[in-house]
Hints:
The complex is a heterodimer.
Chain A: H1 6-15, H2 22-40, E1 63-64, H3 74-79, E2 84-85, E3 88-92
Antiparallel strand pairs in A: 2-3
Chain B: H1 13-19, E1 20-31, E2 68-69, H2 70-82, E3 86-87, E4 94-97, E5 107-110, E6 117-125, E7 131-143, E8 147-151, E9 163-167, E10 174-180, H3 190-208, E11 220-230, E12 240-243, H4 248-267, E13 275-280, E14 285-291, E15 301-302, H5 313-320, H6 327-338, H7 342-350, H8 354-362, H9 367-375, H10 377-384, H11 389-396, H12 400-411, H13 417-428, H14 434-440, H15 449-462, H16 464-471, H17 478-488, H18 495-505
Parallel strand pairs in B: 12-13
Antiparallel strand pairs in B: 1-10, 1-11, 3-6, 4-5, 4-15, 6-7, 7-10, 8-9, 11-12, 13-14
Amino acid sequence: MADLTRTDVAHLAALARIDLSDAELDRMVGELAVILDAVATVQQAPIADVEPMSHPMPIVNVTRPDVVRPSLSPEDALAGAPEAEQQRFSVPRILDED
Amino acid sequence: MTTQATAEATLPLEAALAAYDPALGLEVHVELNTATKMFCGCPTEFGAEPNTQVCPVCLGLPGALPVVNVKAVESAIRIGLVLNCQIARWCRFARKNYFYPDMPKNFQTSQYDEPIAFDGFLDVELDDGAVYRVQIERAHMEEDTGKSLHVGGSTGRIHGATHSLVDYNRAGIPLIEIVTKPMLGTGERAPEIARAYVATLRDLLKALDVSDVRMEQGSMRCDVNLSLTPKGADRLGTRTETKNVNSLRSVERAVRYEIGRQAAVLSSGGSVVQETRHWHEDTGVTTSGRVKSDADDYRYFPEPDLVPVAPTAELVEALRGTLPEPPVARRRRLQTSWGFSDLEMRDVVNAGLVELVEETVRAGASPAAARKWWSGEIARRANAAGQDVPTYAASLGVAPAHVVELEALVKRGRLNDSMARQVWDAVLAAEGTPTAVADARGLELVEDTGALASAVDAVIAANPEVAAKVRDGKVAAAGALIGQVMRELRGQADAAAARALILERLGQS
Lengths: 98, 509
Ligand SMILES: [Zn+2]
């Protein structure tokens, strides 16, 4: 696990849209390696007979009927937005095309 | 980056396919027509004011919890069944993580390695009646993203924009993504097969009533994956993914363009870059987009806020009972009952007229009349307006009842064929119903044999040489006389009656 490279961290930072300086990158490589090592302890748990699970409750098919419920008003919806314009959320310009 | 779609070198299709075999894959996203979103009760109305159909769940506010829409799951299963897929007995949702403002949660709730439907196929009929079987890899449930408006650049484009404005009404609308396996061995028919597959899928989903499948409104969207393999090689080449190819015609064009482009790259010794490409409807080319992220970069993991979906066998069988007749079988049944030739039926299908003809026949018209009136002038006008005939007819307020009425006027002997055409043109010009138009224009076949007889006599008298030829047995020469009689009576005569009378007068009956 501790073989995390500087390139890995730079890649993860880019995916998370976090701009890290060279110094920060160097520091994060070390810190993340420690964290990964700590988490790796979990891998020593004896799980040979345990079914993988992604939810603590053994339940399935929790659904709701296709019935409209009230939405927020646009004012409420936009209340938490740092900036809004034309009743829309205003966000910094997007660099890479989609 | 430039805003211009610069054309790259391409090889002609024939040359490209002489050297390479295409492998085609299609990913189709279909927005379901549920009343509410996938994980919350917000409505899904198209064209609503921005951010009026949003709530804490679809805005990704802290603490909000999603709950699955049961109708969306049932629609997904029905789509899987109609595509001859296996239905998962147990499957989960997953988070697809990416940071882009069209998803306020910073992840899209999707399915990853446990799709609800998998391993199916769809038989696609081509224009000449040949059938190609498209293998379906999977159909999975996910949610749509918000819509961005780019401000400050030219005409809403992303280039040069200063900032973007996001409307989340669409975020969270249920989507089904249908992915084919690579289609191999399609050769020169790859573009045609791609189009036919999307068209067949569209018709099928419409018949299932699970989606509006309006490509122009984005409720059905297509991504085209394509790679080329040198003839004889056994490994697939590097593929590109062309996004948002949103009309049937564009699907065909985009496949053809990518085959030509990749062939030009490969044959000049270059290599194809694995990337997302953008389709430009106006210029008919694709341009390079971002380099495609690895699936790893999305860091998928099971969605902890949702429990698994485990459709019971009883539910799946009950849903199987609601499936419509498969399109190919339905088409054969209608063709037989309508008595159309293969060519006639194909024209009706390709023009998207099957439902309209069916409705018109049900309203009382003969199949031949329904086909004739819906595929003539109105089809030409609809095409010029860039619409399909049903949409165009609806916008004009022209309905099956109008065809029934027009045919009745012809059958009753009030209108002949050319008068009927004139009336139909006027109906399309919103002048009223066929009867109203005929009344307003005083259109009525001359049934008064006296008027017909005197016109015939006058024309014979004015054309002694032609008349003599007919008398001598050259019956074909009568055509010129019939034409003149029709003109004389301003077209409002029965040409057959005029012909009979002329031949009688000239001793040829
Ligand atoms: Zn919502």
